[in-house]
Design brief:
This protein is an all-alpha fold. It is rod-shaped, with a radius of gyration of 21 Å. The relative contact order is 0.07. The mean pLDDT is 89.
Length: 49
């Protein structure tokens, strides 16, 4: 395998690994949102002291 083919292969594997990691992180975040939902009183933006 010459240098160009190895470089292209490593680029594809790197990009694929990055997208796979981002997809897994988005699944974990959506799961955490379902496990720990935001309660209505915490979601108000106009909190009065």
């Amino acid at each position: 395998m010459d240098n160009w083919a190895f470089g292209i292969t490593m680029t594809i594997v790197g990009v694929g690994g990055t997208f796979l990691t981002l997809w897994i992180l988005s699944l974990v975040m959506s799961l955490l949102k379902k496990v720990f939902p935001l309660s209505p009183e915490e979601s108000k933006t106009d909190k009065k002291p």
